[in-house]
Task: inverse folding
Protein backbone atom coordinates (compact mmCIF):
# COMPACT_ATOMS: atom_id res chain seq x y z
CA UNK A 1 0.00 0.00 0.00
CA UNK A 2 1.33 3.42 -0.90
CA UNK A 3 2.17 5.77 1.94
CA UNK A 4 -0.12 8.80 2.12
CA UNK A 5 1.59 12.09 1.41
CA UNK A 6 2.76 13.79 4.57
CA UNK A 7 4.55 16.85 3.27
CA UNK A 8 3.69 19.92 1.23
CA UNK A 9 0.15 20.99 0.44
CA UNK A 10 0.72 20.57 -3.27
CA UNK A 11 1.71 16.99 -2.62
CA UNK A 12 -1.81 15.93 -1.62
CA UNK A 13 -2.97 12.77 -3.33
CA UNK A 14 -5.96 12.56 -5.65
CA UNK A 15 -5.35 9.07 -6.96
CA UNK A 16 -6.49 6.75 -4.20
CA UNK A 17 -7.67 3.31 -5.24
CA UNK A 18 -10.59 1.83 -3.35
CA UNK A 19 -8.38 -1.08 -2.29
CA UNK A 20 -5.95 1.33 -0.62
CA UNK A 21 -8.79 3.02 1.23
CA UNK A 22 -10.28 -0.30 2.28
CA UNK A 23 -6.85 -1.34 3.58
CA UNK A 24 -6.86 1.73 5.83
CA UNK A 25 -10.28 0.74 7.20
CA UNK A 26 -8.90 -2.76 7.85
CA UNK A 27 -5.94 -1.57 9.94
CA UNK A 28 -5.97 -2.41 13.63
CA UNK A 29 -7.89 0.42 15.32
CA UNK A 30 -4.90 1.79 17.24
CA UNK A 31 -2.62 1.72 14.16
CA UNK A 32 -5.23 3.62 12.14
CA UNK A 33 -5.73 6.24 14.84
CA UNK A 34 -1.99 6.68 15.35
CA UNK A 35 -1.49 7.27 11.66
CA UNK A 36 -4.39 9.71 11.47
CA UNK A 37 -3.16 11.63 14.53
CA UNK A 38 0.36 11.90 13.08
CA UNK A 39 -1.01 13.48 9.89
CA UNK A 40 -3.36 15.62 11.95
CA UNK A 41 -0.39 17.09 13.85
CA UNK A 42 1.56 17.74 10.66
CA UNK A 43 -1.25 19.62 8.95
CA UNK A 44 -3.63 21.01 11.60
CA UNK A 45 -3.55 22.79 14.93
CA UNK A 46 -3.95 19.73 17.17
CA UNK A 47 -6.23 21.28 19.81
CA UNK A 48 -8.32 23.74 17.82
CA UNK A 49 -11.94 23.10 16.84
CA UNK A 50 -13.78 25.10 14.19
CA UNK A 51 -17.38 25.88 15.21
CA UNK A 52 -20.26 26.36 12.77
CA UNK A 53 -23.82 27.12 13.78
CA UNK A 54 -26.64 25.83 11.61
CA UNK A 55 -30.02 27.41 10.98
CA UNK A 56 -32.82 25.94 8.90
CA UNK A 57 -34.05 29.01 7.01
CA UNK A 58 -36.72 27.02 5.15
CA UNK A 59 -37.99 23.88 6.79
CA UNK A 60 -39.86 20.83 5.49
CA UNK A 61 -41.98 19.92 2.44
CA UNK A 62 -38.93 19.10 0.31
CA UNK A 63 -39.85 17.33 -2.94
CA UNK A 64 -36.78 15.02 -2.81
CA UNK A 65 -36.94 11.51 -1.35
CA UNK A 66 -33.66 11.20 0.62
CA UNK A 67 -34.37 8.19 2.85
CA UNK A 68 -32.63 9.69 5.88
CA UNK A 69 -34.29 13.08 5.80
CA UNK A 70 -37.06 14.27 8.12
CA UNK A 71 -37.77 17.16 5.73
CA UNK A 72 -38.91 15.15 2.72
CA UNK A 73 -42.58 15.74 1.94
CA UNK A 74 -42.93 12.00 1.27
CA UNK A 75 -42.49 10.91 4.88
CA UNK A 76 -44.71 11.69 7.82
CA UNK A 77 -42.24 12.83 10.44
CA UNK A 78 -44.55 15.25 12.23
CA UNK A 79 -42.45 18.21 11.13
CA UNK A 80 -44.24 21.53 10.63
CA UNK A 81 -43.60 23.03 7.25
CA UNK A 82 -42.24 26.59 7.46
CA UNK A 83 -41.89 29.32 4.87
CA UNK A 84 -38.55 30.98 4.13
CA UNK A 85 -37.57 33.04 7.18
CA UNK A 86 -37.32 36.82 7.06
CA UNK A 87 -33.84 38.28 6.61
CA UNK A 88 -34.01 40.21 9.91
CA UNK A 89 -34.79 37.03 11.87
CA UNK A 90 -31.83 35.23 10.34
CA UNK A 91 -29.53 38.17 11.10
CA UNK A 92 -30.60 38.05 14.72
CA UNK A 93 -29.88 34.30 14.94
CA UNK A 94 -26.49 34.76 13.28
CA UNK A 95 -25.58 37.50 15.74
CA UNK A 96 -26.55 35.26 18.68
CA UNK A 97 -24.43 32.44 17.21
CA UNK A 98 -21.47 34.79 16.82
CA UNK A 99 -21.87 36.03 20.38
CA UNK A 100 -21.96 32.43 21.61
CA UNK A 101 -18.62 31.76 19.88
CA UNK A 102 -19.42 30.39 16.41
CA UNK A 103 -17.22 31.63 13.58
CA UNK A 104 -19.34 30.33 10.71
CA UNK A 105 -23.07 30.54 10.14
CA UNK A 106 -24.62 27.93 7.89
CA UNK A 107 -28.08 28.38 6.40
CA UNK A 108 -29.95 25.32 5.21
CA UNK A 109 -33.05 25.14 3.05
CA UNK A 110 -35.19 22.10 2.22
CA UNK A 111 -35.16 22.65 -1.53
CA UNK A 112 -34.27 20.51 -4.50
CA UNK A 113 -32.77 23.75 -5.85
CA UNK A 114 -33.45 27.44 -5.19
CA UNK A 115 -35.87 29.50 -7.32
CA UNK A 116 -35.24 33.06 -8.52
CA UNK A 117 -37.13 34.70 -5.65
CA UNK A 118 -35.34 32.43 -3.13
CA UNK A 119 -32.00 33.60 -4.49
CA UNK A 120 -32.86 37.23 -3.82
CA UNK A 121 -33.60 36.49 -0.18
CA UNK A 122 -30.62 34.18 0.28
CA UNK A 123 -28.16 36.71 -1.12
CA UNK A 124 -29.56 39.31 1.30
CA UNK A 125 -29.07 36.88 4.21
CA UNK A 126 -25.50 36.13 3.12
CA UNK A 127 -24.66 39.85 3.04
CA UNK A 128 -25.99 40.25 6.56
CA UNK A 129 -23.96 37.31 7.89
CA UNK A 130 -20.80 38.68 6.25
CA UNK A 131 -21.49 42.10 7.75
CA UNK A 132 -21.40 40.49 11.21
CA UNK A 133 -17.83 39.39 10.50
CA UNK A 134 -18.71 35.70 10.31
CA UNK A 135 -17.92 33.20 7.62
CA UNK A 136 -21.02 32.31 5.65
CA UNK A 137 -22.16 28.90 4.46
CA UNK A 138 -25.32 27.76 2.72
CA UNK A 139 -26.86 24.46 1.72
CA UNK A 140 -29.74 25.00 -0.67
CA UNK A 141 -29.71 21.96 -2.94
CA UNK A 142 -28.57 21.81 -6.55
CA UNK A 143 -27.19 24.97 -8.17
CA UNK A 144 -26.63 26.12 -11.73
CA UNK A 145 -23.36 27.84 -12.54
CA UNK A 146 -25.16 31.19 -12.59
CA UNK A 147 -26.68 30.62 -9.15
CA UNK A 148 -23.31 29.59 -7.72
CA UNK A 149 -21.81 32.81 -9.10
CA UNK A 150 -24.64 34.88 -7.66
CA UNK A 151 -24.08 33.41 -4.19
CA UNK A 152 -20.34 33.96 -4.48
CA UNK A 153 -20.89 37.57 -5.54
CA UNK A 154 -23.02 38.09 -2.42
CA UNK A 155 -20.03 36.96 -0.33
CA UNK A 156 -20.79 33.29 0.31
CA UNK A 157 -17.64 31.59 1.64
CA UNK A 158 -18.72 27.94 1.73
CA UNK A 159 -21.34 25.85 -0.01
CA UNK A 160 -22.37 22.57 1.62
CA UNK A 161 -23.47 19.82 -0.73
CA UNK A 162 -22.88 16.26 0.43
CA UNK A 163 -22.35 13.20 -1.76
CA UNK A 164 -23.91 11.39 1.23
CA UNK A 165 -22.72 7.86 0.39
CA UNK A 166 -20.93 5.80 -2.28
CA UNK A 167 -21.98 6.10 -5.94
CA UNK A 168 -23.14 2.45 -5.71
CA UNK A 169 -25.30 2.81 -2.59
CA UNK A 170 -26.68 6.20 -3.61
CA UNK A 171 -29.72 4.86 -5.49
CA UNK A 172 -30.80 2.90 -2.40
CA UNK A 173 -31.02 6.20 -0.52
CA UNK A 174 -32.20 8.77 -3.09
CA UNK A 175 -34.04 8.26 -6.36
CA UNK A 176 -35.07 11.82 -7.26
CA UNK A 177 -31.58 12.89 -8.40
CA UNK A 178 -28.40 11.02 -9.16
CA UNK A 179 -24.83 11.02 -7.97
CA UNK A 180 -23.66 12.92 -11.05
CA UNK A 181 -26.09 15.77 -10.23
CA UNK A 182 -24.27 16.18 -6.92
CA UNK A 183 -20.87 16.27 -8.64
CA UNK A 184 -22.13 18.82 -11.18
CA UNK A 185 -23.20 21.20 -8.41
CA UNK A 186 -19.86 20.75 -6.64
CA UNK A 187 -18.11 21.70 -9.87
CA UNK A 188 -20.28 24.80 -10.26
CA UNK A 189 -19.43 25.81 -6.67
CA UNK A 190 -15.70 25.38 -7.34
CA UNK A 191 -15.86 27.30 -10.60
CA UNK A 192 -17.55 30.20 -8.83
CA UNK A 193 -14.58 30.31 -6.45
CA UNK A 194 -16.27 29.20 -3.23
CA UNK A 195 -14.91 26.79 -0.66
CA UNK A 196 -16.52 23.38 -0.75
CA UNK A 197 -18.08 21.64 2.25
CA UNK A 198 -18.84 18.09 1.21
CA UNK A 199 -19.11 14.83 3.10
CA UNK A 200 -21.69 12.22 3.87
CA UNK A 201 -23.56 10.03 6.30
CA UNK A 202 -22.56 6.73 7.85
CA UNK A 203 -24.86 4.25 9.55
CA UNK A 204 -27.41 3.95 6.73
CA UNK A 205 -26.82 0.21 6.25
CA UNK A 206 -23.88 0.71 3.87
CA UNK A 207 -20.86 -1.61 3.74
CA UNK A 208 -17.29 -0.70 4.65
CA UNK A 209 -16.58 -0.69 0.92
CA UNK A 210 -19.29 1.97 0.47
CA UNK A 211 -17.62 4.10 3.15
CA UNK A 212 -14.28 3.61 1.43
CA UNK A 213 -15.80 4.56 -1.94
CA UNK A 214 -17.44 7.67 -0.51
CA UNK A 215 -14.14 8.92 0.94
CA UNK A 216 -12.25 7.88 -2.20
CA UNK A 217 -14.59 10.01 -4.35
CA UNK A 218 -14.07 13.01 -2.04
CA UNK A 219 -10.27 12.63 -1.94
CA UNK A 220 -10.01 12.14 -5.70
CA UNK A 221 -11.90 15.34 -6.56
CA UNK A 222 -9.59 17.78 -8.39
CA UNK A 223 -9.33 19.70 -5.10
CA UNK A 224 -10.14 18.28 -1.66
CA UNK A 225 -13.23 19.86 -0.06
CA UNK A 226 -12.05 22.43 2.49
CA UNK A 227 -14.58 20.99 4.90
CA UNK A 228 -15.67 17.34 5.16
CA UNK A 229 -18.70 16.72 7.38
CA UNK A 230 -19.03 13.13 8.58
CA UNK A 231 -22.59 12.65 9.82
CA UNK A 232 -23.83 9.71 11.81
CA UNK A 233 -27.38 8.94 10.73
CA UNK A 234 -29.99 10.48 13.00
CA UNK A 235 -32.71 7.85 12.57
CA UNK A 236 -35.90 9.92 12.55
CA UNK A 237 -39.28 8.19 13.10
CA UNK A 238 -41.34 8.28 9.90
CA UNK A 239 -38.35 8.13 7.54
CA UNK A 240 -37.52 4.86 5.73
CA UNK A 241 -34.35 4.60 7.85
CA UNK A 242 -36.19 5.02 11.17
CA UNK A 243 -35.34 1.48 12.33
CA UNK A 244 -31.78 1.37 11.04
CA UNK A 245 -29.47 -0.16 13.67
CA UNK A 246 -26.80 2.32 14.83
CA UNK A 247 -23.27 1.97 13.48
CA UNK A 248 -20.59 0.52 15.79
CA UNK A 249 -19.00 3.63 17.35
CA UNK A 250 -15.51 2.34 16.50
CA UNK A 251 -16.49 2.10 12.85
CA UNK A 252 -17.70 5.69 13.02
CA UNK A 253 -14.32 6.77 14.43
CA UNK A 254 -12.54 4.72 11.75
CA UNK A 255 -14.41 6.72 9.09
CA UNK A 256 -13.19 9.98 10.65
CA UNK A 257 -9.61 8.66 10.77
CA UNK A 258 -9.63 7.57 7.14
CA UNK A 259 -11.06 10.96 6.09
CA UNK A 260 -8.21 12.66 7.99
CA UNK A 261 -5.58 10.47 6.28
CA UNK A 262 -7.00 10.98 2.79
CA UNK A 263 -7.60 14.73 3.17
CA UNK A 264 -4.95 15.90 5.67
CA UNK A 265 -5.43 19.63 5.09
CA UNK A 266 -9.23 19.66 5.20
CA UNK A 267 -11.37 20.36 8.23
CA UNK A 268 -13.11 17.10 9.15
CA UNK A 269 -16.38 17.81 10.90
CA UNK A 270 -17.83 15.58 13.59
CA UNK A 271 -21.35 16.40 12.41
CA UNK A 272 -24.85 15.00 13.02
CA UNK A 273 -25.26 12.33 15.68
CA UNK A 274 -23.24 13.95 18.51
CA UNK A 275 -26.27 14.03 20.77
CA UNK A 276 -26.10 10.25 21.01
CA UNK A 277 -22.33 10.16 21.50
CA UNK A 278 -20.60 10.07 24.87
CA UNK A 279 -17.97 12.70 25.65
CA UNK A 280 -15.39 9.90 25.51
CA UNK A 281 -16.44 8.88 22.01
CA UNK A 282 -16.26 12.48 20.82
CA UNK A 283 -12.76 12.78 22.32
CA UNK A 284 -11.77 9.69 20.36
CA UNK A 285 -13.19 11.24 17.19
CA UNK A 286 -11.07 14.37 17.83
CA UNK A 287 -8.03 12.14 18.31
CA UNK A 288 -8.83 10.45 14.99
CA UNK A 289 -8.67 13.84 13.28
CA UNK A 290 -12.02 15.58 13.62
CA UNK A 291 -11.48 19.32 14.16
CA UNK A 292 -14.81 20.93 13.49
CA UNK A 293 -18.31 20.65 14.99
CA UNK A 294 -21.80 22.02 14.65
CA UNK A 295 -22.29 24.25 17.65
CA UNK A 296 -25.75 25.19 18.94
CA UNK A 297 -28.77 23.35 20.36
CA UNK A 298 -30.18 22.39 17.00
CA UNK A 299 -28.86 21.02 13.73
CA UNK A 300 -31.52 21.73 11.11
CA UNK A 301 -34.56 20.02 12.63
CA UNK A 302 -33.03 17.60 15.15
CA UNK A 303 -31.13 18.13 18.38
CA UNK A 304 -27.47 18.81 19.06
CA UNK A 305 -25.61 19.02 22.41
CA UNK A 306 -26.19 22.28 24.23
CA UNK A 307 -23.51 24.94 24.03
CA UNK A 308 -22.66 24.80 27.72
CA UNK A 309 -21.96 21.11 27.44
CA UNK A 310 -19.77 21.62 24.37
CA UNK A 311 -17.83 24.42 26.02
CA UNK A 312 -17.23 22.19 29.04
CA UNK A 313 -16.15 19.31 26.84
CA UNK A 314 -13.56 21.42 25.03
CA UNK A 315 -12.30 22.81 28.34
CA UNK A 316 -12.02 19.33 29.86
CA UNK A 317 -10.00 18.24 26.83
CA UNK A 318 -7.77 21.34 26.80
CA UNK A 319 -9.14 22.20 23.39
CA UNK A 320 -10.25 25.61 22.14
CA UNK A 321 -12.32 27.25 19.44
CA UNK A 322 -10.31 27.82 16.28
CA UNK A 323 -9.68 31.48 15.58
CA UNK A 324 -9.12 32.87 12.12
CA UNK A 325 -10.85 31.68 9.03
CA UNK A 326 -8.90 28.86 7.45
CA UNK A 327 -10.08 28.37 3.91
CA UNK A 328 -12.28 31.48 3.93
CA UNK A 329 -12.28 33.68 0.90
CA UNK A 330 -12.97 36.97 2.58
CA UNK A 331 -10.98 36.71 5.79
N1 LIG B 1 -31.65 20.19 0.68
C1 LIG B 1 -30.26 20.40 0.61
C2 LIG B 1 -29.49 19.17 0.19
O1 LIG B 1 -29.97 18.06 0.34
O2 LIG B 1 -28.38 19.35 -0.31
C3 LIG B 1 -29.65 20.95 1.86
C4 LIG B 1 -30.07 20.46 3.23
S1 LIG B 1 -29.76 18.73 3.60
C5 LIG B 1 -30.72 18.53 5.05
C6 LIG B 1 -28.06 18.70 4.08
C7 LIG B 1 -27.45 17.38 4.50
O3 LIG B 1 -27.86 17.04 5.81
C8 LIG B 1 -27.76 16.13 3.71
O4 LIG B 1 -27.04 16.05 2.52
C9 LIG B 1 -27.35 15.04 4.68
O5 LIG B 1 -26.01 14.68 4.49
C10 LIG B 1 -27.56 15.69 6.04
N2 LIG B 1 -28.67 15.04 6.75
C11 LIG B 1 -29.99 15.25 6.54
N3 LIG B 1 -30.74 14.48 7.37
C12 LIG B 1 -29.87 13.75 8.11
C13 LIG B 1 -30.04 12.77 9.13
N4 LIG B 1 -31.24 12.35 9.52
N5 LIG B 1 -28.93 12.25 9.70
C14 LIG B 1 -27.70 12.65 9.29
N6 LIG B 1 -27.49 13.57 8.33
C15 LIG B 1 -28.55 14.12 7.74
C1 LIG C 1 -24.19 18.34 7.10
O1 LIG C 1 -23.36 17.56 6.58
N1 LIG C 1 -24.91 18.04 8.18
C2 LIG C 1 -25.79 19.14 8.52
C3 LIG C 1 -25.40 20.22 7.49
N2 LIG C 1 -24.44 19.56 6.67
C4 LIG C 1 -26.42 20.92 6.71
C5 LIG C 1 -27.22 18.77 8.59
C6 LIG C 1 -27.53 17.60 9.51
C7 LIG C 1 -29.00 17.42 9.54
C8 LIG C 1 -29.46 16.39 10.53
C9 LIG C 1 -30.92 16.22 10.52
C10 LIG C 1 -31.71 17.45 10.87
O2 LIG C 1 -31.40 18.13 11.86
O3 LIG C 1 -32.68 17.73 10.16
FE1 LIG D 1 -34.63 17.66 0.67
FE2 LIG D 1 -32.05 18.01 1.34
FE3 LIG D 1 -33.73 16.57 2.90
FE4 LIG D 1 -32.99 15.57 0.58
S1 LIG D 1 -31.62 16.05 2.30
S2 LIG D 1 -35.10 15.58 1.38
S3 LIG D 1 -32.86 17.42 -0.69
S4 LIG D 1 -33.85 18.73 2.48
Result:
Amino acid sequence: MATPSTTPANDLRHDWSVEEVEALFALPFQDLLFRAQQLHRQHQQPNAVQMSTLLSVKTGACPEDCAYCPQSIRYDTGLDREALLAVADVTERAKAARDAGATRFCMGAAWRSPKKRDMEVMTAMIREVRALGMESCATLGMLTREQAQELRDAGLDYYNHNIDTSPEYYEKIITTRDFQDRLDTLEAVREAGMSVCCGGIVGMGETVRDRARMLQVLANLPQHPESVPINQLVAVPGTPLADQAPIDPFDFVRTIAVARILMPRSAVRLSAGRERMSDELQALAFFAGANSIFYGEKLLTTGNPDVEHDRMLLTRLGMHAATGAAGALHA
In short: The pocket of DTB (ligand 2) is lined by residues 54, 70, 108, 139, 160, 162, 199, 229, 231, 234, 271-272, 299-302 (CB under 6 Å). Strands lie at 48-58, 104-109, 135-139, 158-160, 195-197, 200-202, 227-232, 267-270, 292-294, 320-321. The chain has a mean pLDDT of 93.
